[in-house]
């Protein structure tokens, strides 16, 4: 009898050893599209996240990850997109802020949503329901601003809101566990700067991005919603082609040069500088970035790689790689690009600390995980034939899930910053992605052994 019991105990212990480790956190991952992006029910079902290679949200769910896709105004400013994103995730009606609306001359409220994660921010057993935010392109700027608004409110913004006017502007919400920006103009893109001088650049960029789905054209009837209700811009009309609709949007007076509450200013280097005056890298949030580049150096310019960059991006890549940057006081590092964004701008916000690669994550600083040198701005979300980048998202989902949940953190001594060493198998998977997609090799990060405070529970 004793032998049988001993064998049973041994079997149980063995089983517990070979079973996969439970996720360190189970916070949902929310995907946020960029400039000219679209939702799950638009563009004939072509997925923004997955493109030519299916539905990345569903593929991640099939692996067991809790992933949800958000949608916001494709041509709106980062402020408007951030407050729309809050309502879309949590549920409720969009509140652009009465002061903001008055200054910029648009409606103070917008659409209402059921919410894709209504439980967000609720406290269960003393723990806050948090999320991981992942943004592509302008989506990265948007999630950074939302994260700051949640934590600090609008203090310091060009137009401040009364904290009592809406819960988002009150601050005090530690609801975001990590921020990941992918091909994001964290310091702006010179393509948006150039749009003020060469007006068709913005329209051409929008057409190129929407055109990745293969549904744009004079005869296209595919659904696409600009979501500019706050400006009173009429929705797409019956019989109006997608091309004509985009042209009408960019012909609106609100897109005139010098207008600050739409995408072109937010995406420009001027807009990025304006945002950086008040949007901070928060000490209790993990920040990650991925970069893309699909140009090569020739004398004093960067040219698109014709064998890998999609044709619609090549004119804008040529513009970004020209001497435009040099003539306006930017270094030659600003010429390399992915067809839409200057690669140097993707690494971090230009202000907070940043480290290259490495397996040690720390809140309050940026971690630049890779620069993929064979992927353009659309390829990184799945719009490149024969180049399925799903493994980037699968690996990063594992990376995010490996982060410590609230209440299980290790903090640096004399600091509220959290540190975490990523599992070795995930680090190896990241290195494999570098080889697969031509990323510049990263030397392993050298960091002095940190001094830990006692494990504490986050507030």
Explain what you see.
The structure is a single chain. This protein has 14 helices and 16 strands. The protein is an alpha/beta fold. The protein has a domain at 29-185 and 261-292 and 342-436: Alpha/Beta hydrolase fold, catalytic domain (Rossmann fold), CATH 3.40.50.1820. A 7-stranded parallel beta sheet has the order 2-1-7-8-9-14-12, with helices on both faces. A hairpin with a 2-residue loop joins strand 10 (295-298) and strand 11 (301-304). Mean pLDDT is 86; it is low at 1-22, 215-220 and 443-459.
Radius of gyration: 22 Å
Query: What is the count of DSSP helices, taking H or I runs of 4+ residues?
Result: 14
CATH topology of the domain at 29-185 and 261-292 and 342-436: Rossmann fold
Tell me the total number of β-strands: 16
The strands making up the biggest β-sheet line up spatially as: 2-1-7-8-9-14-12
Low-confidence stretches: 1-22, 215-220, 443-459
Q: Give the H and E element order.
A: HEHEHEHEEEEHEHHHHHEEEHHEEEHEEH
Q: What is the fourth-level CATH superfamily of the domain at 29-185 and 261-292 and 342-436? A: Alpha/Beta hydrolase fold, catalytic domain
Concise account of the structure shown:
By secondary structure, this protein is an alpha/beta fold.
């Amino acid at each position: 009898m004793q032998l049988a019991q001993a064998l049973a105990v041994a079997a149980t212990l063995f089983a517990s050893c070979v079973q996969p480790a439970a996720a360190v956190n189970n916070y949902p991952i929310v995907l946020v599209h960029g400039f000219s992006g679209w939702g799950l029910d638009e563009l004939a079902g072509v997925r923004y996240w997955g493109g030519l290679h299916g539905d990345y949200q569903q593929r991640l769910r099939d692996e067991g990850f809790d992933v949800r896709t958000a949608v916001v105004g494709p041509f709106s400013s980062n402020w408007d997109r951030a407050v729309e994103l809050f309502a879309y995730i949590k549920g409720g009606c969009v509140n652009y802020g009465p002061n903001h609306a008055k200054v910029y001359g648009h409606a103070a409220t917008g659409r209402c949503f059921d919410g894709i994660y209504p439980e967000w921010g609720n406290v269960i057993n003393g723990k806050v329901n948090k999320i991981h935010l992942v943004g592509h392109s302008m989506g990265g700027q948007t999630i950074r601003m939302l994260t700051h608004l949640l934590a600090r409110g609008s203090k310091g913004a060009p137009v401040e809101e009364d904290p009592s006017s809406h819960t988002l502007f009150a601050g005090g919400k530690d609801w975001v566990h990590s921020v990941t920006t992918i091909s994001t103009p964290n310091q702006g893109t010179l393509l948006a700067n150039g749009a003020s001088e060469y007006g068709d650049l913005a329209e051409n960029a929008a057409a190129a991005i929407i055109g990745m789905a293969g549904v744009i054209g004079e005869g296209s009837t595919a659904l696409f919603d600009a979501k500019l209700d706050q400006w009173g811009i009429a929705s797409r009309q019956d019989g109006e082609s997608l091309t004509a609709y985009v042209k009408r949007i960019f012909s609106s007076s609100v897109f005139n040069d010098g207008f600050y509450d739409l995408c072109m200013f937010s995406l420009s280097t001027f807009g990025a500088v304006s945002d950086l005056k008040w949007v901070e890298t928060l000490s209790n949030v993990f920040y990650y970035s991925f970069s893309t580049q699909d140009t090569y150096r020739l004398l004093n310019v960067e040219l698109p790689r014709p064998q890998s960059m999609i044709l619609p991006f090549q004119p804008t890549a040529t513009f970004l790689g020209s001497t435009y940057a040099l003539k306006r006081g930017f270094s030659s590092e600003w010429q390399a690009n992915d067809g839409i964004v200057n690669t140097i701008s993707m690494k971090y916000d230009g202000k907070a600390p940043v480290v290259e690669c490495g397996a040690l994550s720390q809140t309050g600083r940026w971690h630049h995980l890779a620069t993929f040198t064979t992927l353009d701005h659309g390829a990184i979300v799945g719009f490149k034939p024969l180049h399925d980048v799903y493994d980037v998202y699968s690996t990063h989902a594992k990376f995010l899930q490996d982060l410590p949940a609230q209440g299980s953190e290790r903090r640096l001594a004399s600091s509220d910053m959290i540190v975490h060493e990523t599992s070795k198998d995930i680090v190896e998977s990241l290195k494999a992605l570098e080889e697969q997609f031509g990323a510049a090799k990263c030397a392993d990060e050298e960091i002095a052994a940190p001094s830990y405070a006692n494990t504490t529970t986050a507030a």
